[in-house]
């Protein structure tokens, strides 16, 4: 096993990862591996990547180190292959065939390191009619049916930021895939390619819904089902101050508590009566509109009614429960989510701020024993 010489914290301490810089799900997946203790070296390109925010605030690059390699230069591919030869995992997010044309595809990397896990992150996947087409999260999830599930039935589907496709259906499946392949590689000495496609992962996330659809327990339209806002006791409601409360009182005992505290006990028997759901929804909405979000939060505090205030991104870190757990942390002046999940024996932490392009070349050249990285750095400085 390749051993990282840099201090690490977490269950992946000692694992080396090469990340070929990109945007979206690849960097987030690499951040998760870095949060778990892996020594992640991000190979940035001269001039950066598209859609990049100020690098000082890009926390998806926290806990990583960065070198700059020009893959289009004569020696660029050789430097990446030098890193791949010393790595456990490599992650890239190019369109199919691009890594091969650049000279850093799976065949070239496995020639240097047969045990390498080569993770490929794309929207459409490595094959299929759309494999070479451009796209973003919203287009990928549109084809899977999951985007069409979300939102009010009388409005266009709601856009769930890039959380559902890029990160849930993409990054998390890539991480599961490369860690499973790493387990196999350590047992057999044989690496492999992991093809993580957002269309595959996002479809897989809807497994339970597809089962319910097949059983006749889910209607193939928005706002008509138990978990998509169609149920009046599983949804969101506006309060008197224009804010919102979230309700998830599905089980009978939780529903009974909900209608009691909301002050509509006359609707206690409407839970299973679909014919009364319109009436129930109107009653719930009217009650919530009668008080502010904070007032309703106080009403439901300490109960099992499964009701919570809908907080903004800036409000969330100050919630007493999240604050008590340390769900968010401050590092380098940036409030950000702390690493997750948590481990009893190998705790994780935000160790460093966002890696700045090329800032770690000297350390990586030493720790990974790739001295030619320093030569490339000098050449790039000389060409500026």
TrEMBL record:
Organism superkingdom: Bacteria
Pfam families membership: CoA_transf_3
InterPro entries attached to this UniProt entry: CoA-transferase_III, CoA-Trfase_fam_III, CoA-Trfase_III_dom3_sf, CoA-Trfase_III_dom_1_sf
Region (Disordered): 333-367
SUPFAM superfamilies reported for this sequence: CoA-transferase family III (CaiB/BaiF)
The protein's name: CaiB/BaiF CoA-transferase family protein
Organism: Streptomyces coacervatus
């Amino acid at each position: 096993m390749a051993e990282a010489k840099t201090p690490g914290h977490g269950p992946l301490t000692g694992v080396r990862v090469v990340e070929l810089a990109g945007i979206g799900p690849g960097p987030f997946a690499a951040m998760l591996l870095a949060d778990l203790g892996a020594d992640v070296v991000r190979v940035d390109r001269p001039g950066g990547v598209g859609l990049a925010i100020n690098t000082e605030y890009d926390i998806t690059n926290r806990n990583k180190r960065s070198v700059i390699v020009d893959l289009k230069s004569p020696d660029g591919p050789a430097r990446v292959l030098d890193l791949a030869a010393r790595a456990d995992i490599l992650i890239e997010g190019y369109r199919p065939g691009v890594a091969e044309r650049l000279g850093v595809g799976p065949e070239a990397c496995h020639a240097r390191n047969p045990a390498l896990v080569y993770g490929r992150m794309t929207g459409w996947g490595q094959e299929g009619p759309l494999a070479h087409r451009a796209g973003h999260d919203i287009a990928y999830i549109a084809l899977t049916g999951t985007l069409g599930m979300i939102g009010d039935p009388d409005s266009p589907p709601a856009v769930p930021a890039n959380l559902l496709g890029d990160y849930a259906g993409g990054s998390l499946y890539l991480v599961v895939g490369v860690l499973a392949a790493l387990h196999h590689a350590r047992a057999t000495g044989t690496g492999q390619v992991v093809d993580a496609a957002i269309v595959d992962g996002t479809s897989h996330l809807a497994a339970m819904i597809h089962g319910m659809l097949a059983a006749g327990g889910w209607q193939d339209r928005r706002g008509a089902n138990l978990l998509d806002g169609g149920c009046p006791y599983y949804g969101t409601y506006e309060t008197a101050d224009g804010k919102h409360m979230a309700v998830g009182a599905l089980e009978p005992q939780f529903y009974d508590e909900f209608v009691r505290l909301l002050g509509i006990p006359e609707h206690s028997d409407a839970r299973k009566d679909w014919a009364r759901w319109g009436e129930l929804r109107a009653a719930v909405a009217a009650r919530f509109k009668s008080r502010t979000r904070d007032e309703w939060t106080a009403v439901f505090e300490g109960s099992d009614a499964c009701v919570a205030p809908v907080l903004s991104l800036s409000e969330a870190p100050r919630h007493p429960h999240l604050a008590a757990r340390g769900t968010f942390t401050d590092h380098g002046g940036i409030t950000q989510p702390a690493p997750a999940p948590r481990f009893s024996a190998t705790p994780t932490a935000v160790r460093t701020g966002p890696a700045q392009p090329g800032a770690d070349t000297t350390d990586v050249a030493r720790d990974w024993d790739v001295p030619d990285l320093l030569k490339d750095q000098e050449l790039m400085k000389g060409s500026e």
